[in-house]
Amino acid sequence: MDLLEIATQSAGERLIKRLAIMRRISQRNDWIERTIFSPAAEEAAYKLKNWMAAAGMETFYDPLTNVYGQISFSKNGTEAPRIHLGSHYDTVVNAGAFDGILGVLIGIAVAEVISESKHPFNHNLSVLAFSDEEGVRFNTTFLGSAYLSGQFEEEWLHKEDEYGKTLGEWLVDRAESVDTILNAHQSPYIRPQDLFLEAHIEQGPVLENSNIALGVFTNIAAQIRSEIILDGCAGHAGTIPASLRKDPLPVASEMILAVNQLCKSDESIRATVGHLEVIPNASNVIPGRVKFSIDMRYPNLKGLRQIHDKLSKQIKSIAKLTNLKFEYNLVHEARDAKLDEKLTDILSESCDIIQGSSIRMFSGAGHDSMKVAQICPTSMLAVRCKDGLSHHPDEFASNADCILAFKAMLQSVLTIDINC
Ligand code: HGY
Ligand code: MN
Ligand code: MN
Prior knowledge:
By secondary structure, the chain is of the alpha+beta class. The chain has helices at residues 3-23, 39-54, 101-117, 143-148, 167-173, 178-183, 206-209, 248-265, 301-320, 341-355, 368-372, 399-419; strands at residues 58-61, 67-72, 82-88, 124-130, 195-201, 214-220, 222-231, 235-236, 270-272, 276-279, 285-286, 289-298, 325-334, 337-338, 360-363, 378-383. The strands form 3 sheets. Strands 1, 2, 3, 4, 5, 6, 14, 15 and 16 form a 9-stranded mixed beta sheet that branches. Strands 7, 9, 10, 12 and 13 form a 5-stranded antiparallel beta sheet that branches. Strands 8-11 form a two-stranded antiparallel sheet.
């Protein structure tokens, strides 16, 4: 075996070991959960930074605990165009062990091979570990990738978590001034002259049904998230007759049914009520407040906005017929992303080399790539996952498929270095 093959072999072994280490880093003992600013997220960030440093990278944290590293191989210094690899290291609640983190660890493995093998390389190579793609704490997504690519929005500083603590307040704890955050626009780390490649589990069944390990995403669906708050009056479950109740839960149920009907009406619409809060949430108390989320996806933002308008009107008309206080808040919107054709071709050719074929696919799941694609050429490698399951503890990608994805990503980076 030559140096490249030897380095690839050992980096692949470390990749598998690190996936196992990462799945044990969680803020819960009973499931995987790594939310931005949690002790688990910070433990993960620390490990990732050390692994990047061990790959020979100059490493950084930023105020949002993105972790990133760069080896400047370019003779034009650190400001020359960068090849960014990576994904997110935060997770949903009761998460799987591959969503996001696999792409980060593949990026580190590629950097290790190029660094260790001393393979001739002329680009600045950067690995990114985004801190908040899932948006669990503040119910908005892509905070990390938006920040690093100069797309941070000041209003996000006022978003509260479940304890009422705003992002801005979290930054004070982290000895970061709000100005630092807002000035990041001036010198983002991800720039138009760079490019970004993200490896990510498919989170769907297409690759498994096609009996193929790797594919390439060409487009990512648009997404909208909204939050509905209904306020009535809490009361004693045993003494208040129905006619005197101001119970928000039956009304919320009618609204949630409307969401479900919408989904059934058109298979290309994905609308989900994933978060439902009943307050005070006690069996012998009539609820006083109900909060729930609606997550909507559709191939393009124009169509999604029309569907969302129709649904929100329907929900508002249900609220109007009641004597409840009602709030409908649009909390997040991300336009669909068309990924870069040239990079998609390179990833596809790498899949052909590594596995003898490849397929081009649409991603219904959102990714940091949709944010970064608004700044620089971006594309994504999709990795088969068992039963297409994700956002679930049984989420699974085989060691063999993870290694194939790593090799395809390495192949793509070496091709880009020669041709771009
Ligand atoms: O929700 C999504 O599509 C992504 O997994 N954050
Ligand atoms: Mn996810
Ligand atoms: Mn993800």
